[in-house]
Amino acid sequence: MEKSRPLWDNPLQFVFACISYAVGLGNVWRFPYLCQMYGGGGFLIPYLIMLIAEGMPLLYLELAVGQRMRQGSIGAWKIISPYLCGVGVASVVVSFFLSMYYNVINAWAFWYLFHSFQDPLPWATCPLNSNRTGYEEECEKTSSTQYFWYRQTLNIAPSLEASGSVQWEQALCLTLAWLVVYLCILRGTASTGKVVYVTASLPYCVLIIYLIRGLTLHGAVNGLVYMFTPKLEQLSNPKTWISAATQIFFSLGLGFGSLIAFASYNEPSNNCQRHAVIVSLINSTTSIFASIVTFSIYGFKATFNYESCINKVILLLLNAFDLEEGSLTADNLNEMKDHLMATYPQEYAQLMPQIKNCSLEAELDTAVQGTGLAFIVYSEAIKNMEVPQLYSVLYFFMLLMLGIGSMLGNTAAILTPLTDSRVIASRFPKEVISGVVCFMNCIIGLIFTMEAGNYWFDIFNDYAATLSLLLIVLVETIAVCYIYGIRRFEKDLYTMIGCKPNWYWKIMWAFVSPLLIISLFIFYLTDYILTGTLQYQAWDATQVNVLGLGFFSVLNLSSCKDTSFFPNYTVPQSGLLEVRSWNQGHPLILWKGKPGKT
Amino acid sequence: MLRALLLLVSVVAIAHAELCKPDAQNAFKVRISIKTALGDNAYAWDANEEYLFRAMVAFAMRRYSSKSTTQISNVLLCNVTDRVSFWFVVTDSSKNVTTVPGSEVEAAIRMNRNRINNAFLLSDKTLQFLKITSTLSPPVEPSTPVWIIVFGVVLCLIVAGIVFLIVSGIQKHKKKNKESTERENLEEKVEVTLENGIPCEALDLKAGHINGVFAAEDERFTSL
Question: Which of A218, B12, B59, B60 could form a disulfide with B108 if both were Cys (CB 3.0 to 4.6 A apart)?
Fold first, then answer.
């Protein structure tokens, strides 16, 4: 007797699984950055257009293929055409690459979560130096949050080739992260189906709490106004449209085979058209929601830094000219500065290099994305809130849920083809296969816990999946529309759901989406070829920072990362980050610590 | 006589002025930020506070060197500004018109910094001795770092969950295997009538058995 395929207990589990997979860290740390870079509120226009043009159709396509073929990615594409099982294999390989490095983010989230149970938070203050007369030098030069991230979490090496040793604390957290993933996928859909209730809904609870907290913070309105002011001239910039298309594409997680795997566990009569629309709308709405939260936090942080900057200047002037306390305030600062410049020209001229021009605009302009946003900017904002431990625990728990939700999809994409293949599944039970996959990924993932691990992480993050996914999805669309035949596909959908897809879906599948993907592919390929020597940013702990710009300049460095997935660092300024180039594994030092251009 | 007295006073005053001036040898600058520290409860800096300061410095010197020769009059203040900041020196009472070496003063102040701060309700940051670095207190660190404790708890929970799931899976598997071998043994022993692979004893022949697949198909048939 054939064992029947395990199914989701109810359609809600399937929807939650898709939401949990699609709503991931990219919604929190990449969309707000894109929104800020490409015209604020105006970015929503290309974003929604791309959602309708490529997001929904491609999502529906993958879900329908999975539900119809009732196999993982390899089996499904083999049924479509025996020559196309390579597409399935490619999906599995890309998913494998992703799961190798993605779980490190969960390990970092665990690390921060465990460290949130202290008072004061460990990233709130700098540690003391050896003779207890001041703070640690590296920490003084940047900020306590960056020091905690680069030195105490990553213990980052100065370059890629100085690999250093495996950090045992990070290795422990990575092992724990893999154990959690194993626990969730152990029983297949039976266990995954229960877990996704939590991983899909908890982030929304935390986001709502943060929305309420964020909007009531001092200075949050500055951030929101700044973000939502539409700069419609950005719409004429082609990069805006490309970024919108890219973001929709990668945010939904197409091409990895996870959606096919999830849909293959559906009842054949499940209405995947409705679910596709629901999941894509929820994904985009979550991005917008998360960016509201992020921008209120930005506004708070920027206002706080601006006011600290003003207070520092006031203190400097008070001390230098021995003026009475309280005579200089934020309001009369500019007039007093002019007055002092006129009265004591010589001393003022001596002080000039130290007097910073504090600007709220400049603070708001520092756009950050990626791990920098999640682990540095947010923890900086959290440490200045009341009861920071509570908010810290909530936030990192949310990151953990988002990351684990995405990991469940990735591992499902790898395991479903393996458990479908009779060769393997007949010999080993499901638990053993899952265990072996998790164990192998964990061992390989130890690379990312070494001192140079973050550089490897950046390389994988930028190059592991991008071009391959575009190609995979392109071949998928063409295969379904032209090789399998769109009429045959239509009939299959009619059998499953009971209604034929209308002209919108057919036009998108047959013409618009493939054209969009081809143009994205060509753009990225040419960008890659034209970039020449690839570069990466490195952390230099020994550099003497004359100007003392600290946190501000380091943020600028990470903000000069381009929007595309291929790093294109333009104008580095002084700070602890230096730029090195990586040319086929032979890193060259291009620039070391001078302000200016490369 | 009066003239001599006047001369002596002026000599002393000039000597004091010589000893205590900004950037003099063995002189230290002090900067006080009362409003920052105390806000609305700030007191005004006047001659009484200066007297207290001189008394505290003299106390520090006495405690440090354990010879009770330093008097309040040995501590000289000058150049008091609105900020509030001023310079002070400690003169040597045994030898006139010389100042106590700066290193001694520094060591004395360092040793008694806490007492001096508390006398003025200030802290290291708001009562600054500009050339004297303060010894910062390290943060309180528990013997086992907190994060390891939390890590251990979470790890134990997760491992317990995994073991539970695996063991229950193995038990279910064994039970299924035992059932199927039992059924095979049963079939070998007694010639049992089988209906579709199910022994008739298992079927409830009295109540009948509704097969769900066929029952649903009733609706497919057109009614006559």
Answer: B60
The verdict on a CB contact (< 8 Å) between B162 and A182 is yes
Task: Quote the ipTM score.
Answer: 0.81
One-letter amino acid identity for A352? M
On whether any CB of chain A is under 8 Å from the CB of B66, the answer is no
Helix (H) / strand (E) containing B31 = strand B28-32
Q: What is the pLDDT of residues A366-378, one digit of tens each?
A: 777 788 778 888 8
Query: Is B85 strand, coil or helix?
Result: strand
Q: Which residue has the higher pLDDT, A374 or A561?
A: A374
Taking the C-alpha atoms of residue A327 and residue A322, their distance in angstroms, rounded to an integer, is: 11
User: What is the residue range of B40's domain?
Assistant: 14-129
pLDDT tens digit string along A42-54?
A: 899 999 999 999 9
User: B214: burial class by Cβ within 10 Å (0-12, 13-18, 19+)?
Assistant: exposed
Question: Which of A128, A322, A429 shows the shortest C-beta gap to B85?
Answer: A322
CA–CA distance, A326 with A321 (Å, rounded to integer):
13
Lowest mean pLDDT among A134-143, A163-172, A582-591: A582-591
Mean pLDDT of A351-363: 83
Q: Which residue type does A207 have?
A: L
Alpha-carbon gap: A192 to the closest alpha carbon of chain B (Å): 13
The helix, strand and coil proportions of chain A, stated in percent and rounded to the nearest 5, come to: 70, 5, 25
The answer to whether B15 touches B97, Cβ cutoff 8 Å, is: yes
Which residues are CB-neighbours of A527 under 8 A, at least 6 positions away? A564, A566, A568
Is residue A174 within 8 Å of residue A104, measured between CB atoms?
yes
CATH number at residue B110: 3.30.70
CA B124 to chain CA centroid, nearest Å: 17
Cβ neighbours of B157 in A, within 8 Å = none
Q: Say if B202 falls within a structural domain.
A: no
Secondary structure (3-state) at B203: coil
Structural domains of chain B, count: 1
Q: In this structure, is residue B8 part of a structural domain?
A: no
Question: Is B195 a domain residue?
Answer: no
- Cβ contacts (< 8 Å) between B148 and chain A: which residues? 114
pTM, entire model: 0.81
